[in-house]
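Repro:
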Amino acid sequence: MAQHRSGRAISRAGWGHPLRWLVGTAISIALLYLAVRGISGEGVDWRNAWQTIIGADLPLLGLALFAVILATWLKAVRWRFMFYPHHRRLHTGAFFAIFFIGQVVNAVIPARLGEVVRAVLIGERERVSKAQALWTAVVEKVLDTLTLLVFLGVLSLWVPLPSWLQQARWTLSAGVAVVIAVLIVASCHRERFLGWLERWTSRQQESSRASSRSSRLVTLVRAVLDSLSLMRRPALFGGLMFWSLLAFMVAAWANWLTARALGIEISYGAGLLVLAVLQISAVVPIPTSPGRVGLFHYLCVLSLAIFQVPGDQALTYGLVLHLVTYLPMAIGGPLGLWVQSYRWSDISRWLDADASSLAHDPEGSSTLSL
C-alpha cells in the first residue's frame, strides 16, 4: 500500500495534469516512428537490426557499461568538490549513490525533480545545507553547458555541423553568457541585492505563511550568492571544469565503445557528437515518456546520419545505447536507496512537500557556505 501511494505521489509531482502525460507519450511515439522510418524514409530492416544486436561484442558492451558508471562517479566527485572547503569531511560514496538516485528520478519523472531529491538526500545524509545542495545543480548545468560548447567548438573544426546543431550551439552560448553575466552582477553587488530583497520581502509579509516563504526565499538567495565564490576562485573553478571535461570524454567513450561493439565503424568524434546532441536535448524541456523513449533514439539516428551511417545501424545503435545508458542507473538507483537506508516512499513524501522548504535546513543540519 505504501509503495502504491508512493507511485501516485511521484506521478502527481512529476506529471501533473493527464494532458502532459498524453502529450509526452504522443511526442515519444512520433519520434520513435521517425527513428524507425529513418532519415532517408526507407524504413528499417528488422532482421538485419536483430542480427546486429545478437552479434554484438559483449566484452566491449561491458566496457561501455563500465564507462557509463565511471562517468557518473566522476560527476559525483565533482559534485562533492562544490562544497569546498568542507568537502574533505564528506563521503564520495554517498554522493555517488545519491547521484544515481537523482538520475532515476529524472528518468521516470519528466520534470527534473531528481535535483530536488538529490539536494534533500545529501542534506540529510551529509548534514549540509539543502539550499546550497540545490544550487549546486545549477552550477552543474553551467559547467556541463560550458563543456558541451567546448567540445562542439572542437568538433566544428573537423566535422561540418548541420544548421540545426549550429543554431542550438549559438542559442546555448547566448543563454550561458546571460546566466554568467547575471551571476557576476549579483555577486559583485551581493549586499545591495540582499538588502533590496529583504526590503521587498518585508512588504510581502502580510501573513505568517507569506512571512515564512519570504524568509525561505532570502535564505535560498543568500546560499546562491555564497556559492558564487566558485566563480571567483580560478583554481577551484578550473578543477571543476577538469572533472567536467573528463566526465564528458568518458561518456563519449561509452558511446564509441557501443558502436564498435555493434560493428559500426565511427570515430571517437562521432561519439562526442552523439553525446553533445543528447545533452542539448536534456536542456530543452521537451515533454516525453519516461526514459526519453523515442527522443533518444531519433537523435541517435539524426546524429549518425551526419557520418553517413545507414538508418538500420543507427537505430540499432540507439536501442543498444539507450540500454547501456539507463541500465546502470536502473540498478544503481534502487541499490543506492538501499545502501543509504531510504525507501521510494521517502522520495514521494519529499516531492509532495513544498520545494521551497529546501531553503530551510532541518533541525540539527549545519550550513556550509562556500
